[in-house]
Amino acid sequence: MSAIATGAERALLLEHRLLATLPAPSRDRARLEWQQHHVAMLPLGILFSAVRIPGRLVVALTDSTEASELDEFMRHTLDDGPVICDPRHLRYYALVPASMPRRWRQAVDDWRPLDVECLGQGSYLGVPRADAVRYTPARATYWSVPMDSAATLCRPLKVARLIAAGRHCLTTEPEE
């Protein structure tokens, strides 16, 4: 018996862990949502919270609108922490520890003018299937940076630095 899990086995383990955020009767509904729509609504503030980052901040930092380049930037900047992308609204959701909305309250308040929001308990997030790891026009959401395990999240300080750098790029006048 192999001690190394295959990609399919890791995806099943991850989906099982994500479904644990729901009460037992709702898990079948979420599985069906993943099958039919490739995304399921899961509650935040239990396993993780999410920082919603407008794509314009990421585009300002990369000077690119190519999904693959933006995804690689997020992967590198957030040290492989899991990020969900909503390409229709060009928003990124960095998955962070569940306690971030409480512990980073002042920073979260400072980010509001940028349309950055920290979503926690009482919020839901459309979470893509574990195998939705690339942008396609048909997908409502996908893993910009796949979640390797439910225990690996984005570090809040890295997320804060990304937001600060994006703010700086947006407020700095280009030299002519």
Features:
globular; 7 helices; 5-stranded antiparallel beta sheet; 176 residues; alpha+beta; 41% helix; single chain
Description:
The protein is an alpha+beta fold. Helix content is 41%, strand content 19%. The protein contains seven helices and seven strands, in the order ααββααββααβββα. It has helices at residues 7-19, 24-37, 55-62, 67-77, 100-103, 105-111, 156-171, and strands at residues 39-43, 49-54, 83-86, 91-96, 117-119, 124-128, 142-145. The strands form two sheets. The protein has a five-stranded antiparallel sheet with strand order 5-2-4-3-7. Strand 3 and strand 4 (91-96) form a beta hairpin. Helix 3 (55-62) crosses helix 7.
Write the layout of secondary structure elements.
Layout: H1 7-19, H2 24-37, E1 39-43, E2 49-54, H3 55-62, H4 67-77, E3 83-86, E4 91-96, H5 100-103, H6 105-111, E5 117-119, E6 124-128, E7 142-145, H7 156-171
